[in-house]
Amino acid sequence: MSALQFEFDLDPNLVIDPLKITSVVSSRSFLGGNWLVQTKHKLFNEPEVKKWFLPVDCSYWNIQVFTTVDAGTVIPSHQHDEPVLRHILSGSMELNGELLEAGDWVIVPANFKYGIQTRDGYKILSAYHDNCAECKWESLSKLPLGKI
Fold first, then answer.
1. pLDDT digit string (tens) for 84-116?
2. 140 pLDDT exceeds 80?
3. Most buried among 58, 64, 84, 137, by the most CB within 10 A?
4. Are 33 and 67 in contact (CB under 8 A)?
5. How far apart are CA 29 and CA 32, in angstroms?
6. CB contact at 8 A, 12 and 91
7. C-alpha dihedral over 16, 67, 148, 138, to 10 degrees?
8. Are 145 and 73 contacting, i.e. CB atoms less than 8 angstroms apart?
9. Nearest residue to 52 via CA among 66, 42, 63, 61
10. Could you tell me if 61 and 84 are in contact, meaning their C-beta atoms sit under 8 angstroms apart?
11. In this structure, which topology does domain 12-147 adopt according to CATH?
């Protein structure tokens, strides 16, 4: 964690290390989906604005990529050589059957197979490291996309 002053109730040992997880972790599964209670910024008390901390050590990632996917798209099962963090900004998607909607986040561990489908389409902000094979465009895979 940073040397900056932060205060929240989450046990620092529960902060997710993306390099150590072995299964998908999402805002719906972490702490039974009740992570907002323990990550509220206690030093920020403006009633009109609420702030929470993402319970993830994000120091690994240094590239942010926006992606838009059309309604009805199926992205077949694949994996990345690094953990990937995704924030769903709008729309919805199912990742290995788990429904994720706008406001949710998900971390897929390195070398973990997953597929995505979306009935409505979605926009996400993904975090990668600059060593990511996918981000080195010469090795970008051409997955055969499907339709629902």
1. 999 999 999 999 999 999 999 999 999 999 999
2. no
3. 84
4. no
5. 5
6. no
7. -100
8. yes
9. 42
10. no
11. Jelly Rolls (2.60.120)
Residue spans of beta strands (DSSP E) within 15-140: 25-26, 63-69, 73-78, 84-95, 98-101, 105-108, 114-117, 122-128
R_g of the chain computed on alpha carbons: 16
d(CA 67, CA 124): 5
Amino acid (1-letter code) at residue 126 = S
Tokens 């975090």 found at: 127
Give the bridge partners for 101, in sequence order.
Answer: 92
- Tell me: pLDDT of 139 over 50: no
Residue 30, SS3 per DSSP: helix
Place of tokens 């009109």: 48
Q: How far apart are CA 141 and CA 148, in angstroms?
A: 21
Residue 2 clears pLDDT 90, i.e. is over it: no
Residue where the block lists tokens 């199926």: 74
- Separation in Å, CA 132 to CA 18, 66, 84, 120, 139: 14, 16, 10, 28, 10
Amino acid occupying residue 125: L
- CA angle at residue 134 from 131 to 135, to 5 degrees? 60
